[in-house]
From TrEMBL:
<keyword id="KW-0812">Transmembrane</keyword>
<protein>
    <submittedName>
        <fullName>Uncharacterized protein</fullName>
    </submittedName>
</protein>
<keyword id="KW-1133">Transmembrane helix</keyword>
<keyword id="KW-0472">Membrane</keyword>
<feature type="transmembrane region" description="Helical">
    <location>
        <begin position="35"/>
        <end position="54"/>
    </location>
</feature>
<feature type="transmembrane region" description="Helical">
    <location>
        <begin position="214"/>
        <end position="242"/>
    </location>
</feature>
<feature type="transmembrane region" description="Helical">
    <location>
        <begin position="306"/>
        <end position="329"/>
    </location>
</feature>
<feature type="transmembrane region" description="Helical">
    <location>
        <begin position="254"/>
        <end position="274"/>
    </location>
</feature>
<feature type="transmembrane region" description="Helical">
    <location>
        <begin position="120"/>
        <end position="146"/>
    </location>
</feature>
<feature type="transmembrane region" description="Helical">
    <location>
        <begin position="364"/>
        <end position="382"/>
    </location>
</feature>
<feature type="transmembrane region" description="Helical">
    <location>
        <begin position="158"/>
        <end position="178"/>
    </location>
</feature>
<feature type="transmembrane region" description="Helical">
    <location>
        <begin position="388"/>
        <end position="407"/>
    </location>
</feature>
<feature type="transmembrane region" description="Helical">
    <location>
        <begin position="341"/>
        <end position="359"/>
    </location>
</feature>
């Protein structure tokens, strides 16, 4: 029962006592190992929740749970959808080309139920569940790469690679550091990029089918993952075919083709109707040129910018590592070397793919700047993993202590922006539904204590069709327009409003150039109802 198990990517090994099949053994041992894995994932979730709460206070720049989670119109999409489900509203939702169905919607639904519909607890629980799943993906890959090692060794090595996901949000204020904690913004893509090698490494057909289905659903929901994953996969296939012949890639290519074909079918049949616009609308040369100026996700502090630079250097290091791992694979057909090649190619080769398609944006740079740190830490040998993990946890505790703002949790829990507080205070009873631009509609309504809801419009006064329930426009008549001339999208055309519905009956203020045009007159409200084709009750 003793065997010589390779312990690191360089191929070194030592004699260890372990079962030949890793997780095999008597029933008691299997349940013990499963319990250890479950406890570790719960610990990852709790640690993430701690980091979230630590950041939920302090000054505006550091408090990303407010500045990123609550203030981003995009992050509240699935919460609002679930609110509609709970309220029994008609579901005519339109998303972006990233439709966030899988795995984002199941995760959000679980968080929504556990939070009891509370928006503040919802964001915290989504972050905790997301990070637990990312830890689970890393653990699965480590286990499949090293089936002979003990479960504690698997857990330690996966935890080392996972640490940046909780340390980075404590260090800098760049949104990039917390993208993986958000309800949307490509979490499914991150999960696939970390866990995809499991499809190649899994030995049982049943496991491969489950993993293939999960990847296919995620790719159908998050097509951007293909831009990062497929070019690296093609290069890996070229390496294998060149060294061992085309037949060597036959079975993996069959599985990959099946996954991509299933993703395409699911996208066309089930998800196309959910997208607010085609993915090809992103492919625009003028838009690409305009976005180049803002492609670097600037942090509001020097440490954040230094870490982003470190991420870029890590991406370069990954590419160098891919070349070295490719040479090792050329000499010896070792699966872990092939996985290392793929991980190493994903960041910069994927970035090249976005540039080739003219769709580069700072939101797409998590795989380029954050993932490389994870990939490099996955290469830490088993013998060094405990010490590396201990060092990382000490650093994490130090950051928690030095950045903690436990006395200021109220700056997140129960937070309402000044605009939302104003709306709750000044709007007369019976005026809970109004019109606003997309950028204002969701962020102002989610934390309203009165349940104020907005129907999103474009500045031209027509319906906004991006990340919203299209039925809102026809389900209710709004009685006021929120006109924000300070920031965000261009304000809704005032002349159009007065020409179509008449002058407002009241004008309420929520600050300089922040006005509420209120309508009480039945005739004017009837014109609003007819203009927007509101259903008669």
């Amino acid at each position: 029962m003793l065997q010589k198990i390779p312990l690191d990517h360089a191929g070194s090994s030592s004699l260890v006592v372990a079962p030949r099949t890793g997780f095999a053994g008597d029933e008691h041992d299997r349940w013990r190992r499963r319990a250890l894995v479950l406890v570790s994932m719960i610990a990852a979730a709790l640690l993430t929740a701690l980091v979230f709460v630590v950041r939920a206070g302090g000054d505006a720049a550091a408090n990303w749970p407010v500045n990123w989670e609550l203030w981003s119109s995009d992050n509240g999409v699935l919460f609002q959808l679930l609110q509609d489900v709970a309220a029994g509203r008609v579901l005519d939702w339109s998303f972006s080309p990233q439709v966030y169905v899988f795995p984002e919607l199941p995760v959000s639904a679980l968080a929504f139920v556990l939070a009891g519909g509370d928006v503040y607890a919802y964001y915290l629980l989504v972050a905790a569940i997301n990070n637990a799943l990312l830890f689970g993906a890393l653990l699965l890959v480590v286990r499949l790469l090293f089936p002979g090692a003990r479960v504690t060794a698997h857990l330690a090595r996966a935890a080392v690679a996972w640490l940046p996901l909780v340390i980075l949000p404590l260090v800098g204020t760049a949104w990039m550091f917390s993208f993986h904690l958000a309800p949307t913004y490509y979490f499914g893509m991150y999960l696939v990029l970390l866990g995809a090698p499991a499809l190649h490494l899994a030995r049982s057909r049943r496991a491969r089918r489950v993993i293939a289905c999960a990847i296919a659903l995620t790719a159908a929901s998050n097509p951007l993952v293909l831009v990062f994953a497929v070019p690296a996969l093609v290069l890996v296939g070229v390496l294998v075919a060149w060294r061992f012949g085309r037949r060597a890639i036959g079975r993996p290519a069959w599985w990959l083709g099946g996954v991509l074909g299933a993703a395409f079918v699911v996208r066309v049949v089930a998800f196309t109707g959910l997208q607010g616009t085609s993915p090809f609308t992103y492919v625009d040369l003028d838009l690409f040129r305009a976005r180049l100026d803002g492609v670097w996700p600037h942090a509001a502090d020097p440490p954040g910018n230094l870490i982003l630079l470190a991420g870029l250097l890590a991406a370069v290091g990954c590419l160098v590592g891919a070349v070295l791992a490719g040479r090792l694979y050329w000499r010896r057909r070792e699966p872990r070397h092939l996985v290392a090649v793929w991980y190493g190619l994903v960041p910069l080769v994927g970035l090249a793919g976005t540039i080739a398609l003219l769709i580069t944006h700072q939101y797409y740079l998590w795989p380029v700047l954050v993932a490389p740190m994870i990939f490099l830490l996955l290469a830490v040998p088993f013998r060094a993993a405990p010490w590396t993990l201990a060092t990382g946890l000490v650093a994490l505790v130090a950051l928690v202590v030095t950045t903690s703002s436990f006395g200021d949790e109220g700056r997140y829990f129960g937070h309402r922006s000044a605009e939302t507080r104003c709306l709750d205070d000044v709007l007369p009873v019976g005026h809970e539904i109004g019109y606003a631009t997309f950028s204002d509609a969701r962020r102002l309504s989610l934390t309203s204590e009165r349940g104020i809801r907005f129907i999103p419009l474009k500045s031209s006064g027509v319906q906004a069709t991006w990340l919203t329930n299209l039925d809102y426009l026809h389900a209710d008549t709004g009685t006021f327009f929120y006109l924000n001339e300070v920031w965000g999208e261009p304000v809704i055309d005032k002349d159009l409003i007065t020409r179509s519905f008449g002058a407002p009956d009241q004008v309420l203020g929520c600050g300089d150039r922040l006005a509420i045009w209120l309508y009480d007159d039945p005739a004017k409200l009837a014109r609003i109802t007819g203009h927007f084709h509101v259903r008669q009750r």
